[in-house]
Each structure stands twice: as structure tokens, then as C-alpha cells.
Amino acid sequence: MADLNGSSxxxxxxxxxTPEPVNGDRLNVAATAVAAEGLSPAQKQAKALGQVQDTGxxxxxxxxxxxxxxxxxxxxxxxxxxxxxxxxxxSASAKPVQPAQSETPAPEKKAPGAFPPAKAGWTxxxxxxxxxxxxxxxxxxxxxxxxxxxxMYKGTRNTDSSDASKDLLGQYLNESYYGEWYHNxxxxxxxxxxxxxxxxxxxxxxxxxxxxxxLATYYQTSMRRLRRNVRDDIQRELMINRLETDVESxxxxxxxxxxxxxxxxxxxxxxxxxxxxxxxxxxxxxxxxSIRLSTFxxxxxxxxxxxxxxxxxxxxxVVCMDWEVSFTPNDILDMSQRDLQSKVNPKIVLTxxxxxxxxxxxxxILLEDLAFSGKLRLKFKFFNEFPHVKTVEASFLEKPSFDYxxxxxxxxxxxxxxxxxxxxxxxxxxQVHATLGPMMYAPNAYTVDVAGMMxxxxxxxxxxxxxxxxxxxxxxxxxxxxxxxxxxxxxxxxANTSNPEMxxxxxxxxxxNPKWNETHFIxxxxxxxxxxxxxxxxxxxxxxxxxxxxxxxxxxxxxxSDNVVDGLNLPILRSGKTVGEIKCDMRYFPVSVPEKKxxxxxxxxxxxxxxxxxxxxxxxxxxxGDAAKRNSGLGLxxxxxxxxxxxxxxxxxxxxxxxxxxxxxRSFNPxxxxxxxxxxxxxTKVNLDVNIIDSxxxxxxxxxxxxxxxxxxxxxxxxxxxxxxxxxxxGAGKIHLTAMWKPVIMTGFAEGLxxxxxxxxxxVARLHFFGxxxxxxxxALTGGKSDPYVRVMSGTQIRxxxxxxxxxxxxxxxxxxxxxxxxxxxxxxFEVMDYNDISKDKSLGLHDFVLKDIVKENKTEDGQSxxxxxxAVDRWVDLVSSDRKKGKGRLHYAASFIPIMELPQPKxxxxxxxxxxxxxxxxxxxxxxxxxxxxxxxxxxxxPAEAPEKDLHGAIIKYTEDKRIDLLNYESGILTVTIHSAxxxxxxxxxxELLVDSNDPQYRTVQLKGSELPFNETGDAFVKEMDFxxxxxRIRPPSDKxxxxxxxxxxxxxxxxxxxxxxxGRAGTEEEGEAYKLTDSNGAVIRLSFKFTPVVxxxxxxxxxxxxxxxxxxxxxxxxxxxxxxxxxxxxxxVVFYIDDVKVYKTEPxxxxxxxxxxxxxxxxxxxxxxxxxxxAEVFDYDQIGKxxxxxxxxxxxxxEMLESFAAKDVEITLDTKATLRVRMLWQPQLLARKRTGTTxxxxxxxxxxxxxxxALGVGKDVVGAGVGAxxxxxxxxxxxxxxxxxxxxxxxxxxxxxxxxxxESSSDSNPPTPVAPIPVSTTSTSSINRRxxxxxxxxxxxxxxxxxxxxxxxxxxxxxxxxRNLKAMDKxxxxxxxARVRMGGKQVFKTRxxxxxxxxxxxESFIAKTxxxxxDIKVKDKNTLNDLDIGDCIVDASxxxxxxxxxxxxxxxxPKGTGEVHIRIEQVPDTTDSSSITSxxxxxxxxx
Length: 1489
Prior knowledge:
The chain is an alpha+beta fold and 1489 residues long. It is built from 24 helices and 60 strands.
């Protein structure tokens, strides 16, 4: 029904049932609010949370929720499985929907010659806005004061028509022509001039009298109107003053209430009894039989309004009044004798029945002699929409007074008023005032949202939408107790965990990594004020279930994300600490509501087969048949009768119990007013069944009536035909039921499921950590300082970590981490840690980074989503503790976003199904990363006419000749690795880790045990340079210590080789993967599959290149024109070399020469950051006595073009004494290993490959300096080798020349390739495209392959002695001091340092030598003061170990048997020198100058 302005109140189909006349209308506020469920304007929702009135139904809903908390799904589907739920909703969406009950009125057509739109209301004739228009009033308030606004709306004076009709002039002249002085002056001047003119023309006295009469009439009219206006103004001002100062009587309304009260009070009392009984049966204690409101009347004398005071100076849309009200039914002074004879006093009797059955008895509690008086301020606020009253505020200006008599025992005759007990009455009054004071004693006010009540927003128990949450699983759960196994399940709560649970998953037995894959529907009132809590519980037998932890999500973020959030990784917290991670998706579907157009036309809500059913079981009548008629004549739920019933109702939906009321004791007309709301996936398949059951004391309950209907049929009869009472089957009586259907459009739900645990990436976050200041010192008690490093976490996964800096509270890392991200919700955590050798690292503070600060989501015209970078951020932030409290220290970082390639979505032709496109949308983001023919989306291999030239970011797409995306032509991207399973021949326990050019894992799976480990998990990492990058998947025993590097097998390969296999379709299917051998695993096999997603608009900083880190081999050749320091005109020169001011090597002196030639001098030193590093040479004259004399100093600074990787180059260094020093330098790019043992970085370099400039200089000092002294003089050659680090995942890089091989030349799929260490290629002088072109020349391919597979090796070998294990103890203490020496061709070529008191030494030292016959003699010895002892030795045949590959990495047993094993790595490198130990090849590896 339209309101007075022609607009509709916007309500859903009202399915409330009108009760029979005998009970009258019920003033159920909650039921009235249901009439417009979910349709309030935004301003109607502002105060709804604090204004909902407690009608008792909220408790009923809570009890229903508690009952359903056992795991029953509040839907009609009957399952939680995500796949089945998706199919059910998709099936319902595909079915035809019954049309809405109300039709949209057709727009009125304008006939030719029709009247223009009518002017309605005073606003059509005034420039002032309607005071109910809040926006317009806000504008006026900003420009005018409150008094000015009041003056604007005082209105204009009305003309008295009776006065106007008395004179002729007043009928024709407007009021505006009177009163002003110039009006009167003009009339006088006109009269004089006109009289003179008449006399001049011969007029007589008669003409002058006519002019005088005109003047007199004008004067009379002007004076009359002046007096009337003055009188009106005076009266108005007096009225305003009287309203402000005087109190008006309200006798007229009191007279009206007196007459109306006698008619309405019986109806009101019956309504109150029905509502009260429905509430009382839900809250009856178990030790009582029943509680019933058996008597209720407010008497025959109504309340009275003693006076009203109005405040006129308020805002135009506000009316403020003070009412003095009283309710004194026992005051008889104002009543006549006839009124006294018919007077009925207020009386309320609450009957409490104790006992059971016939032995029970009822005890009446009497409340009478009620009296109340108070002064109440009411403030009404209006607005220009129906119902035009927005809010009503009520507050008591002073404490109200009240009185009553309470007789809990004895009733009216023998009852004793307990208020006569001294002190009790005052105590009760104080408690009432203390309760009401904060609520509605001035200046506090109780606000009733009238508009919200009419629209249904104040009923917070009503659902206005459905939250569909799909829980996939949880990882790394940590139990809360030490007893039994962990059997986790999840409960869902709104607002806080103490609220009743809304749903529950199944319990998964004995696992810390449960997989649920369940979808639950949770009914919500709104998304604006609550959070959802996912509480992970541990199911226990025989004792209470224990809480594992809680994950929370603010539902406001869901509203800000268009009601869709996918790929959530929520941390599970317990006492502020992370104890696991839960993975889920969330989608919110609001109730479909009517839409009001600008012309006032109301479009009804869109219909859907899915929605929310609000079903209410109200009451029953006549259950006992004839017995009911004998016992009830009033239609009220009476108590009594030996043949009365204890009836309760049970609602079943598709056979599942959804609602069970409490038993209404001893009545044939029970009233429950209980409702339940459930989500219905498909209303066409819903059957409703209500059973009325009589509760028996000493026998089985008996069904006394049934009601059965399908939901569609009920809505047809209920809404269209207005039926609300139904006769019961299988018994006497009838039942009163109501139902409301709220349609929910489930668009996109089916497409949103099925993502599982892995979300395709949307891009890469580049995180540059400059440093930190004033960090917390957690080692102060031991006299030290913290050893800080920073790590990046996504959920519980560590995505990268910087190098630590020892004893530094103000570290400068200057370190870059690249972290793939998969959703706008994937916020990252930057945590600063303190490194510890033995115990776990300690947190120094953290910072929560919001990904939305650097990423924005855009959409194409077709609605395809893609992600663009925002401007990079550079910040100093304060660190907080793990529980997000204020911490100590500040962190400096910069962050930016690198997008992935996202292809335009191809347009679907007619008849084409809803197939997924190749575009990297949020739901299909990995499309461009799967170009292999068997798994690629259609448009990866589309015809040239269909292949897009650019992606959505505007980047040009690189294609092969057959128009497939050429992944090998992209240097950088995201490598996605699915770890399917690992098969061992014996039972093991392990965790799989993914490493791409890193010393630390970038993804870690859950731990499993058994001979077969079915991981089935997917991780990813960023590939900076395909030519140099390596991917490693290793299996290691699970350990709480991240520093434990023990492995039980690993696979490693170059990324370029992996991408080539992707292009050739040999990278493994998503279901099974491809089998690969695991090194150091006794024949274990791992199944992997790969995908590669290129990034666009990205150029790698040369200082971050993998080629910028590695080992520098320097061979001093000769010096010329050195100064003469000795008397004979010669010198005894030697050279000391430094890298960045850190001493790394010292040559042997060459006697008696100023042009020395150095023989057999060579050293290798690790360089963390080549660009900007300096090689410094200082030449001294050796003196046996006295101080060596300085002969000169020279230096050379490296840049990106100075040295070509793996190509030796002679460099001449000019000294400051004009002498020259000639050296040969060889640069070998290599990922330098981080060795986290001890308190400093001894023995190996520890800089990760992603280093940025600056930090390397400081770290390099420690790294290279540690190597000094570790090297040992090489016997027979005079050279020294500085100990260098080797990556845990294998040093060196795979030969790019192999990448040009045809598939037939590659390893057979049936024989998985053995992991190899790839050989790198130079990137200093040519682009990656040209570099690949030169690499793939057939000549170079043949030379490289033949050299690798020959019977003898003629190239050089890079031999690394990593360590040994299980060595024989040679000392009395059961240990040894082992070192290794290496002989080749009959000569000793290398010796490691000795490691004290250990049987498992770690050397990590390498050297380069010519292969000769390929035989390598390694002997491990025990260091002693007088004579070293042999522990064991072995002779290694490099040709046999390599077997056509480019590298070998493994353990070799020593002889005699049982003396231990030695861990070696052998890699082929090009012949680069012309000396006896190292030869060179002109032009480098690829023949380039």
C-alpha cells in the first residue's frame, strides 16, 4: 500500500497471521518489525544495535542455536560437503522461479493534451526545503544559525477574507501595496494632483468628494491591516513565550483515553498474557513444573497526562515536549459514585506450580496497588519518508516515583506484603534507579527507532543475508594439552566465542593438518558490526573438549570487498601466539529487497529458489476436542482440568528437526510464538512437517496432531489466499503458523567453490628492508646484544629472510625479498628475529603489512579483474609484539608490486558454455602459466588471428612461431611447484621444502610419516633470472629447529630446464605429476608438477642479479717497474690483496727483482656483491729484519661490464707509484650459502642471492675475513685457497647449451633425470634473448654434450669438499681433529682446514683443477701436534661419477670400511687459464670476446 506521497513502505510479502478476535490484536514489536525485513535505509540502521527491545524472543533464538550447535546443518541440503553444496545451489539456480506476488506497475503514459504534473504541497510554492529533507537541512544549518532557521519557517501572515470582503479596494489590491511610507506618500500625492486636475478641467465639489472618499477608503484598509498584523505578531510572540514558560493541560486527550481505555484494556491484557506465557515456558527452571501468568489486568482507570510543556525553538524536523504522566488507579477523588461501583483495580497474579502430576500445587504470587508518576521528556524527529517519524527519544527529567504491593505467599486473603519489611522497599527503589539511570535518566535518553522498526532493522534476531564459508583445512596445529591425540574440528561464532556456535565441522581424527572441505551457511543480520570467529577445538572422550586456538575475520572487510573474499589464510591464535593456520573462502549473499525508483515506482525483490525461510509456530487451539470446549470458554491458555495437555511442537524440514518448543503445561490452547530461520538451497524440494506432541509424565509422549505441507504450497495458500490457520491431521484442533520467504540470489556461488588450498598468484611483492633502529636487546643478561634478521611471513609460511647481523641493535640489512602474493587479503607479516645457535630464535617485534597499500584491483569492460600496482611505499614503522601491543624498535622498508601476465578474456560465442578463460582473474589466475598443450587453456595455443598482442597491463606478449606463449623468452616469473608424493623403500618421517635460489625454504609442507608421503600441496617462489635460477625440492626430517639442514633426499634442477619441460608438455599433470629421483635417498622417487607464470613491467636491478654474487678467483701474474727498496737496486716484493678493505690473500715474496713474476699463486674469495666491490693490491718489500717497506698501492672497482662470468680476463692494475700489477681474474656466479653455526659467519659466505647494494660491503668483511687463515698453503704449487661457501642446494649452474637439445636428445621420461647443478651463463654484455640465441647454436651444443659424455674429461673441475660423517675416532676423548687433503696426477693440490673435536666436520671448501685422468685421491687425516694420523681415504673417478651429467653431489665411503664417508660435489667448469693448473679458452664459454 502506498503512503501519502505515493511511495511504498517497501516491505516484503507479509505472512504474519491475524489472531482470532477472541484474543485481540497483539502488540508484538518483534513480529511487527518482521514486516519489512532488511529494507531499511542507511540512516535507519545507525542505532539499531543498541535500540532493539527485549521481547523474550532473543533468548528463544539463542536456545535454538545452541540446539543446532551439535553440528546439524541449518539448510535443507543435509550435507556439508563443499562439492555437493555447490551442485545443489547450482541446480536450484537453474530451475525456473515462480514470479513475485506483486507486479511492477506499468509506467503511466501521457496522453496528448494531458495536464502538466500537479503542484502538490507548500514546497511547490516556496524556495524553502521540506524540513524532513535531512540533506537540505544540513546545508542550511551550515549557513544559518538555529534562530535564523526558526525565523525562516515561521510562515507568512494569512489575510482575513472577511475583512477583505468589506471594502472594494481590498478585493483588488494585494496586501503588499499597503503599509509602506512611500505607498502612503504616493496615494496622497496622487489625490492632490488628481483633485487639482479635476478642478482645472472644471470639476465641481462632487468630484473632489469622490477623490476624498477614495483616499479615506485606502487609509481605512491600510490601518485595519496594520492593526491586524500587529495583533497577530503580538499574539504569536505571547504564544511562544507561553509555550516556553507555561504548562498546558491535556484534558481533551485524557477524556479520550478514559473512553478508549475501557475498550482496549481487555485486549491488551490478553495480548500480554499470551506473550508472557510464551516467554515463561522457555525460561522455567527445571525444579518447577510450570510458571504461568494466570491473571493480568491494569484496571478500569487509565493513565493520565497531567500537563504538557512544548519547546518551540528547536530544529524544524524536531518536536520536543515534557509530559507529566501518572498512573494512580487507587486515587478515587476524581471518580463519581457510578465509576466507583464499576471500578476494577490493577491485579497481576503469577502462578508457580511445584511438584509433578497430581501431587503438584500452584502458588500464586500477587502484585497489586500499582502506582506510578514521573516527568518524561519526549523528542520526535521527523523525516520525509514513510512513516515520517524517524526516532522518538524518551528520558526522565527526574527520578520517577512508583509504589506497589507484592505478596509472594498467601494470595489476597492471607498474603503478606513483603515491602513492609524494613529497608526492602528503599533497596528495590535504589536498584530500579540504578538500572534505569544510565538508560533513560537525563541527560541519557532511550531512543526508539520507529523507522527502523517499520523497516525491520531493529530485530537483530532476523537474518538479512547468508554467509557461505568454505573451510578447506588447517596446517601445523599445536595441541593445547599433552593427553591423547589431536582430533580437530571448527566451530563458528559471531561477535565472540562465548556466543552460541552457528555451525560445526566434522572432527578429523589424529592429525595436526586436518582437511575438511566443508561449506557452511551462517545467517547474519548485517556485516557492519561483527566479526566471525573460527574456534578450532580438540575432541576428547570422557572429558571436555579443549580449545586449540581461535582465528578471526572482520566482516566489514567482506563488505568492502564486494561480499567476496577468497583464499584466506587466517592465523590461529592462542594467548597471542600463532598455533596454526586455517584456509577458507567467504562469500556473503544479502536478501533480495525491493528497489524504489526515482518516480516512486517500486520494483519487487528478485525471486530465487534459494533463500531464507523464517518459520514461526505461534499457537494451537482446541487440541482436546470436546474436553477443550468444556475447559475453556475464553480462548485463553488456561491452567486446569485433569484431562488437560502438556503440548509441544516439533518442526522438521526434509526430515531434519529444526525447531522444538518447550511443553506448554496443562492447556488445550498452547501458545509458543517460537520461530526459526534456516537457509534453503532449493525451495522446490523442501517439505515442512509440524508434529504436536503431548508430553506425558510417566509414559511415552503421544502425537496428537500433524501438519504437513510443501514449502511452495504453503506459500501459495499463505501469501495469495491469506490462510494462516490450518486444521491438524490425526487429531482435533487447529494450528496457527506463519512463514516469511526472503529470496537470496546466489550468483557466483558455484563458481567460487573448488579453489582448494592453493590460490594462483596475482603478482609479486618486492620488499626492500633497509634496516632497523633501537631494537630490543634480548641478550642483555648474558652481556651481549641481539643478532637481528627480518623475515617475511604469509600466514605460517616463511617466504624469505634476510641475513643476520651479529651484536647489532641498529642493523642495516639493505636486503630485498620477493614474495608471491595470491589475494588482496594476503597481508604479510614482517617480523624481526634474534638468531640463536641452540634455542629457538626470539621475536624482537613485528609489523603487519596490508597488501592493499601497493595493489589495486581493476576490471575490464567485460568485468574481468586484474591487479595493478599502486605507487611504491617507503616507511619507518614502529614494531609491535606478537599480541599486537606496543613494542620496541622501528623498521625501515620499501614495498612495491610486480603484476603477472594477465591475458584478456576471450569473448564467448553463442552456445558456448561457461568455460574458464585464460585470463588471470582472481578465480583463474594461473592460466598464462600453463602453456603446455595438454593442460593449457584454449587461448594459449589459439590461432594467430585470435592471439592478443598485449596483456591487460599493456605488455607485449612474446609468442613462438606456432603462436604459443614463449615462456622461455621471459626472464622472471613465478614458478609453481605441486609436490604430489614421495616414495621411499622404508618408513620415514619427513617434510618437503621448496627452495628457488635461496638458502631457506620458501614453502614448507606438513609433516608426514610412512613409506609413501602423499603431500599433495602446492607452493611457489619468484624466479628472478631464468638463466641462473635453480629450483630445489628437498625432504628432511621434521624438526623444531630451522637450523637443522639434514636431508633424506632432494631434487634440484635449473629453472630453464623446468620451463622447457613445461613448454614440451613434460612437466607433469596436475593430478599425478612427473617422477624424479631423489639424491641421497637410497632410490626414493618424488612426483612433482610445475607451472610458470611470467611477470610483466619488471626489470631486475643489476645489483640484485644472481650473477652479482659468487666466487672471484685471482691469479697474480707479474708486476713491472716496482720501486727499488734494497741497496742493490732491487726489491723482494710480495702482494697483499684486499676485497673491500678485508685482507684475503698474501703472495710469497719474489727475491731480488723489480719486475717479479709470480708462480703458482692463486686464491679464490667469495664476493657477496660484485658491483661496487673493490680489489685492492698493496705491494711491500720483504725484509727479514725490520718492517716491510711499502712499494705501492692500486685498486680496481668492479662493475657489471668489467668481468664476464666464467671467462678469465687479464687486468692491469696501476699502482700509485706508477708501477703496474697484472692479474688474471675469473668470476664464477654462485649462490653463497648461509652457514648458521657459531656466533659469527666463519668458513662460508652467508649472503642470500637477493642481496641489494650496501649490505654486502659490511657482510663481506666478516665473510671474507673469516676465510683468512682458513686457507692452507698448496704444496708444490705455492698457491693458497680461501675457504668459500657453497650453497646447500648445489653450487654452479646448469649448462645453458643443453637447452637447445631436441626432445630426442633429452633424458627419457621413463628414466627421470638425476638432479644436477647447472652451469651459468654470462649476462653482462648481451640481452637474455641474444644470449639464448648464442647458446643454442648447434656447434656449441655438440661440443658441450661431447665434452660431458666422453670417457675422459679434458675440462676443469670445481671440486668442493663439503664435509664428512661417521668418521673413526682417533683421539682418546672419542673424537678427531679431521681435515682432508686432495691429490691429482700424483701431486697434492688442496688441503682443507682442520675442525677440532668432531666426527662430522663441515669444511665447505672448494678449488678448481684440471681433470687429467679424472682420478681424485681424497684422504681424511686427524690433525696432531707431532704426527697426523690417517683416518681413511678414497679414490674418486670423476668420469664414472658424472656419467654424462655436468655435476655430482653425494657421499663417498672411505677405505678401510667403517672409517666414515666424505661429502663431495664435482662440477664441470670451462678451461679458463694458461698455467699448469688452469687452462683458458679464448672467448669464454660461448666463444664471445
